[in-house]
Amino acid sequence: MCVVNRQGRRHTVGAFERLVAGAGLVVSSPAMALSAVAIKASSPGPVLFRAERVGHAEVPFTMYKLRTMHQGAQAAGSITGGRDPRIFRAGQVLRSLKLDEIPQLVNVVRGEMSFFGPRPEAVDVVEKHYAPWMMESLEVPPGIVGPGSLGYFLEEDQLPDDPAEAERHYASVLLPRKIARELVYVRRRTLAYRLELLLRTLLGIVKLRGLLSGAAEREERAATEILCSLGELPAEPTTLPVSGDRGGDDHDPR
């Protein structure tokens, strides 16, 4: 049976969260400086990658990341798999340690993102591939950490190497599952769930994701119930493996 659990979902980024993000920028500045040196030594071009994303209430904003791909890589497509040759070596390390996400603290300070929430999608992905039911994920601010990206840890290796084929596979197979997981958060964003997401992210970075496999399985069942309630169950099973050593999370061409 499909179960739907919905609650009031309007949300803004509070002053305390912005203050914590500002402090995080100060504390992480040495890591940012070392990362900048590694990027410059690995690939010519800017240190920061600026990506246009769709945020809360469908308002577009510029999201900041450390660049992990060669300059001009976005011309080949906006979907990136874990084996994408456009990622330079230092970029792989930054992705695996999640250091490339640090500049998004600026977005939190500006109130465009939260620490927790659905991962923001590229404008073209939303315009071309979002079904009406997926727009619910835009009812809260996007986050640095979210259940959709945690599942994507294990799914990005399914993407074909060809950028056009990768986008088709992402849109038809991976995106519905990813958004369904994001809706689990939108409909159930308790403090305990946020702490669980943070812990699962940290365990994923150190390759110990299996320690909270039960939480991932519960989340996957909830996502399946959401897809079922919407009549959007994909042809392929939605249950994912809960072990593995993938460290990336996003599909940005950066």
TrEMBL record:
Domain of life per record: Bacteria
List each copy of the Bacterial sugar transferase domain by range: 15-205
A molecular-function term among this protein's GO annotations: phosphotransferase activity, for other substituted phosphate groups
Enumerate the Pfam families for this protein: Bac_transf (PF02397)
Residue ranges for the region (Disordered) are 235-254
InterPro entries in UniProt: Bact_transf (IPR003362)
Q: Which UniProt keywords apply?
A: Transferase
Annotated coiled-coil positions are none
Q: Does the keyword Nucleotide-binding apply?
A: no
Task: Provide the family line.
Answer: Belongs to the bacterial sugar transferase family.
Put simply, this protein is called Sugar transferase
